[in-house]
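Team,

Forwarding the record for the chain on the shared tracking sheet. I've put the sequence and predicted structure together so nobody has to dig through attachments.
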Amino acid sequence: MKTQTYTLPQLSIGQIMSQIQTTSRITRTEQESLWQLMRSADRLNPEEIGQLQRVFDDLQKGFLRVELS
């Protein structure tokens, strides 16, 4: 099985989170990339982990719209 690799533009996690919160939208690619970041939480600082958790909480609550692009 071939594993896909997702990469985000060269933006900080804070910039990405700000963009997602401003638009209330997240692309499937961003979502997958953020999941990968969350799985490697040992490389993130507590603020970044908190930002990621807020995005995933918002996704679960339906506050964010997932776009397929």
